[in-house]
Structures are given as C-alpha cells and as structure tokens.
C-alpha cells in the first residue's frame, strides 16, 4: 500500500515539516514490540491505550508483539484544540476491563509535562494490578516536570509541537503516516503580521 507521505503539511494555517519518517517509526516500534514480548513473556499483559492520540501507535505496536496479550482503552483530554496543555486532565471514557492482578501496560502517544501520565499511573495503581508499566511513543523530556514513571520510550523529541501518526492539531492530522514538527516562524514574519 502506498502511504501519503508529504515532506511538508499545512494544518489549520500552520506549516509542519516531517521529523520522523514512516520507516524510522516502524523500525523503532518493531524493537519496542520485541522488547515487550521478551519482558512480558508468559504474563499475558493488557495494553491500555490512551485515546485518541495513541490509537495508531498501539495498533502498530501490538502487531509486533509475539506473546498472548489483550487490549482496552480509556479516553483523556488535556489539550483541547490548542498547542499548549490546558493543565487539567479530563477523563472522557473509563477502562472497562478488570485490571486487578493483571500486568498492565499503559500506552501513550506522547508524554509532555507528564500531568496526564501522573494521573493515569495513580488511577490504575488503585486498581491493584500485578504490575504497571508505561510505554510512550514520544517523550518531550525537557518539558516533563511532573515526576512520572516511563518504562519504554520510542523517541525523545525537543519541546516543540508535533502531529501526525495519531497526534492531532485541533483534531486534524491524525491520519498522517509520519510525525511532523511545527516550523518556527521567523521573527520578521511574526512582526509583519499585526
Ligand atoms: P501532558 O499531560 O504530558 O502534558 O500531555 C499529554 C497529552 O497532551 C498527550 O497525550 C497528547 O495528547 C497531548 N500533547 C502533548 N504534546 C503534544 C504535541 O506536541 N502534539 C500533540 N498533537 N499533542 C500533544
Ligand atoms: Mg495522549
Ligand atoms: Mg490532542
């Protein structure tokens, strides 16, 4: 199948440039899938995907996992339609599975400030899982200021807004097969605007 892989995209009036290619992403996820399969051999882990952003990452990750496993989802919202976090976590959908005595792997698209992950780890921790691990495709380590546990990271990225591969900007851009980063406007462009 030929995927749509432009070098630049314009979403909601902002210009983005490719940062991680489809191939780089797939290669890394394959390694993560192998690592998880090794670490959770005979534990039948349950992946808990954080909607909406993590759905594509989780779908690809699970197909590189070679051991028995299950999946469920919850839904959080912290960005609204903006490019900076609202600083509040809202839960829009509950986990349906019973996680007591299960080996749980939380799956996120990106850990930015760490607020959402902190909320999730505390919440799932209260459900008495046998173990709780965290995997994120992207980590903005410079921006993370909440004390969070992260066991597996796909890529460390700079503190800039990204989209594609499940991640949105005001709900658009999730369909892109690659990860794109916001092109910073030159000072001259910013000034001439107003
Ligand atoms: P945190 O709670 O760690 O600050 O942010 C977590 C959530 O904010 C992520 O799961 C993701 O949905 C959203 N987010 C953080 N940084 C970015 C980004 O650069 N691009 C997009 N599209 N979403 C982001
Ligand atoms: Mg997310
Ligand atoms: Mg979002």
TrEMBL record:
Q: What class of enzyme is it?
A: transferase
Family stated for the protein in its record: Belongs to the purine/pyrimidine phosphoribosyltransferase family.
Residue stretches making up the Phosphoribosyltransferase domain: 20-169
Record's keyword annotation contains Hydrolase? no
Q: Which cofactor does it need?
A: Mg(2+)
Give EC number(s), comma-separated.
2.4.2.8
Q: Does the keyword Metal-binding apply?
A: yes
According to UniProt, the name of this protein is Hypoxanthine phosphoribosyltransferase
Record's catalysed reaction(s): GMP + diphosphate = guanine + 5-phospho-alpha-D-ribose 1-diphosphate; IMP + diphosphate = hypoxanthine + 5-phospho-alpha-D-ribose 1-diphosphate
Q: Which GO terms describe its molecular function?
A: glycosyltransferase activity
Give any Pfam family that matches: Pribosyltran
Where is the protein localized?
Answer: Cytoplasm
- What NCBIfam families does this protein map onto? HGPRTase (TIGR01203)
Q: Which PANTHER family match?
A: HYPOXANTHINE PHOSPHORIBOSYLTRANSFERASE, HYPOXANTHINE-GUANINE PHOSPHORIBOSYLTRANSFERASE
Pathway entry:
Purine metabolism; IMP biosynthesis via salvage pathway; IMP from hypoxanthine: step 1/1
Q: What's in the keyword line of the UniProt record?
A: Cytoplasm, Glycosyltransferase, Magnesium, Metal-binding, Nucleotide-binding, Purine salvage, Transferase
InterPro entries assigned to the protein according to its UniProt record, in alphabetical order: HGPRT, Hxn_phspho_trans, PRTase-like, PRTase_dom
């Amino acid at each position: 199948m030929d995927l749509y892989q432009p070098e630049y995209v314009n979403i909601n009036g902002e210009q983005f440039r490719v940062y991680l290619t489809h191939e780089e992403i797939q290669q890394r996820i394959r390694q993560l899938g192998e690592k998880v399969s090794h670490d959770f051999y005979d534990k039948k882990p349950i992946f808990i995907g954080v909607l909406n952003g993590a759905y594509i990452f989780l779908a690809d990750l699970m197909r590189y996992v070679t051991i028995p496993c299950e999946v469920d989802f919850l839904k959080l919202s912290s960005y609204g339609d903006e490019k900076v976090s609202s600083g509040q976590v809202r839960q829009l959908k509950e986990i349906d599975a019973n996680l007591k005595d299960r080996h749980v792997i939380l799956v996120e698209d990106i850990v930015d400030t760490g607020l959402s992950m902190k909320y999730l780890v505390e919440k799932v921790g209260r459900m008495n899982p046998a173990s709780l691990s965290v995997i994120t495709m992207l980590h903005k380590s410079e921006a993370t200021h909440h004390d969070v546990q992260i066991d597996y990271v796909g890529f460390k990225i700079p503190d800039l807004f990204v989209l594609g591969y499940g991640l949105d900007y005001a709900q658009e851009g999730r369909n892109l097969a690659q990860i794109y980063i916001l092109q910073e406007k030159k000072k001259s462009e910013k000034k001439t605007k107003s």
